[in-house]
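Single-chain item
Fold in C-alpha cell form
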Amino acid sequence: MKFTNKEIEYAIEMKELGLDWSPKNGDWCIDPYTDKKLLNPTIFYNQYENDYNPAYLSNRIIEHPDRFIWLPLWHQCREIAEQYGYEIRLFDNSPRDGLVQVSLKNKEKKEAIVYYGETDLSAFYQCIIQILEKEKK
C-alpha cells in the first residue's frame, strides 16, 4: 500500500483535530519519530526488512496508538463520516482536471461537504478534516 505525501499530511492534521483511533488488524499508520515509516502490524514483517521485531511493533502500536498517525483506508473513511452523520453523496473519479471528487451530505443538517483531491483518499481526508473542524466549533 502506498500513500502520497499529501495524504500523510492530511492524516497528521486529522490526528491533530482529534480523530480517534483504536488500532485493528490491517490498519495502516506511520511512526512520525522514524522518518514517517509506513507500518502495518499484520503484514509488516512480509513487506519491510529492518531491525524491528514485528510482534513487538504490533504491541507498541496497540498499546500506544497516540504515538502513531493512522492512515484510514476508503472503507474506514466512510465509517468515520457515518459516525458524524454524513453519507457519500457523490464519488467521481472522472479524469476532469485529473482530480477525484468526494461529496458528503449530512443526513440531519442537510449540509454538504465537497472536496477534490489528486487521489480518492486525499479528497476524503479533506472531507473528514472539515467534519472534525465543524465538530470543534
Q: What stands out?
A: The chain is about 40% helix and 20% strand. Strands lie at 29-31, 37-39, 69-70, 86-92, 100-106, 112-117.
